[in-house]
Design goal:
By secondary structure, the chain is α+β, with helices and mostly antiparallel strands. The chain folds into 2 domains: 100 residues, Peroxidase, domain 1 (Orthogonal Bundle), CATH 1.10.520.20; 72 residues, Glutaredoxin (3-Layer(aba) Sandwich), CATH 3.40.30. The protein contains 8 helices and 4 strands; from the N terminus they run ααααααβαβββα. A 4-stranded mixed sheet has the order 2-1-3-4. Helix 7 links the parallel strand 1 and strand 2. Helix 1 packs across helix 6, helix 2 packs antiparallel against helix 6 and helix 4 runs antiparallel to helix 5. The longest helix has 17 residues.
Length: 178
């Protein structure tokens, strides 16, 4: 992520939090960023330096008239277009969601398991991670048979590795040192 996107996201977060509209702004950003991500034609048009700013602003204004987003998002997207930063909208959205998660006490856990987890196992793992972090945890589960068994969970920069592969590696290292 770029520093510029983080700065814009932080500014938008400050405004959204002040107005108590964090969730609504997040949803509006999702809607508009998804449009940009899905439409290569629109993305290329908005990033083309040869297209006049007034033309880009007119297209964005027309787009904003067709979607229902909070006024703050509408104003923000027009501002981004005017500053020629509209192409950063997807990055800004990602940064905004990260800031919203921090503010709301949520965390994403990237979890690697050897085989798929049942709903009950996911609930138990989520509960354990929530008790460790004190945050509401959303799981993003990936299956990787190479870990043999157990779980590797990463939230931010913290990793909990209880995989069988890791345990075997530690035993091997202990034996090698002896």
């Amino acid at each position: 992520m770029s520093i510029v996107a983080r700065r814009y996201a932080t500014a938008l977060m400050n405004l959204a939090a002040r107005d108590r509209q964090v969730e609504a702004v997040a949803a509006g950003l999702n809607e508009l960023a998804d449009l940009l991500v899905e439409s290569e034609t629109l993305r290329v048009f908005l990033s083309e330096p040869k297209v006049a700013l007034a033309t880009k602003e007119a297209v964005v204004a027309d787009l904003l008239n067709k979607v229902q987003v909070p006024p703050l998002v509408n104003t923000f997207v027009r501002f981004l277009t005017h500053k020629r930063r509209i192409v950063l909208l997807d990055e800004i959205r990602a940064e905004f969601h990260e800031l919203a998660d921090e503010r709301m006490g949520r965390a994403n856990a990237d979890v690697v398991v050897a085989t798929g987890l049942t709903d009950a196992q996911q609930d138990a793992l989520r509960g354990r991670l929530q008790s460790l972090t004190g945050k509401e945890v959303r799981l993003r589960v990936q299956v990787d048979p190479d870990i043999l068994g157990g779980v590797v969970a990463r939230i931010g920069s913290t990793v909990w590795d209880s995989s069988l592969r890791n345990q075997l590696d530690r035993i091997e290292q202990t034996i090698a040192k002896a």
